[in-house]
Design goal:
The protein folds into 3 domains: 2-113, 2-Layer Sandwich (Nucleotidyltransferase, domain 5), CATH 3.30.420; 128-213; 219-336, no CATH class. The protein contains 14 helices and 9 strands. It has helices at residues 34-41, 58-65, 79-92, 101-113, 125-157, 164-169, 171-179, 183-213, 219-224, 232-242, 251-257, 283-296, 303-313, 315-336, and strands at residues 2-8, 12-18, 24-31, 48-53, 71-77, 262-263, 266-267, 270-271, 276-277. A 5-stranded mixed sheet has the order 3-2-1-4-5. A two-stranded antiparallel ribbon has the order 6-9. Helix 3 (79-92) crosses helix 4, helix 5 (125-157) crosses helix 10 (232-242) and helix 11 packs across helix 14 (315-336). The longest helix is centred in the middle third of the chain and has 33 residues, at 125-157.
Amino acid sequence: MHHIGIDLHSKFCTIQHIVEDGSLGSSTEIATEKVALFKYFDKFDQDISVTFEAGRNYWSFYNMLKQHPKIKRIQVVDPRRSRRVSEELSVQAGYGRAKNDRIDAEMLAELDRQNRAPIIRVPNKIQFEQRTLMRHRMDMVNMHTSILCKIHSILALHGNDIRKNEFLNNKLARENAISSLSVNIQGIILNYYSILTQVTDQSKALEIIIFEQIPDSHPNIKILLTLPGAGPIISRVIHTETWDIRRFKFYTYYNSYSGLAPMDDESAGKRSGRIILNKFSNRYLKYAFILAAHHARNHPKFRRKYRLDEKKHGAMRAKLNLARRLNKHVFWMLTRQQPFRE
């Protein structure tokens, strides 16, 4: 099998070919276009394995490569996890600290040849669309919160510390708060409020589409809705980011993928006492489980343990511990296709 590493860019890509025995083959730079790439792949007489990093256009590039008959394996690599391994291979190859597109492509091909590539799972079309919808909805909520905090901060700086809920829901109080400001500051607040209104309306319209695409009758959503702290949105975030629970061998793998597993911070047998979470994880799942833990902290099944953790370790660690327990529950619920049991 021929191993090909591709350093992918939007307009062009650098390709390095490595033979099965490790010797270097051809190296070229061609346009990131189907015709040019397929013309290059047609030259090979054996099956091809292609490896490239997950950039912003990785999904469309992956689906384009799937159409070529000689490409038997496509590996999409997590660039954050592959960087250290690639640096190690680069030193072994004699490049030292040198770095360019051709060397990057060669290291990707070598990762593939040695079966050391930290690959990611590429979603299918349905999952990709539903996941994009849910991530966009989460980004809209974050945008809403950010704008509301800016309005609240500006009003507080000018001596009007109106509560956020009152500003949103009480028209008279909102108008009084704005009218007490100078003309220029009023313009700023009104601009922010106009954007806030648009974001709110778009979020409501987006939720209608989401509930049509992922109805409550979906088997996984039915199960996830029984989880304490998981409402209609959180359950759909967990579903779209997890998709197929069978790809995780055990709940600890799922816990690590969700970014909730603590990493060791130890030297000479001594622990630092800090809690370090894995940054190379799914931040949307992490957000969903921590938010679910916030809502589930008073549930009868979790309240006593949460209070003990809060008293001993503080609120943040208690919430993380509860998020890990919820993560474990979700793994077994989806694996066994059973609702939550108290």
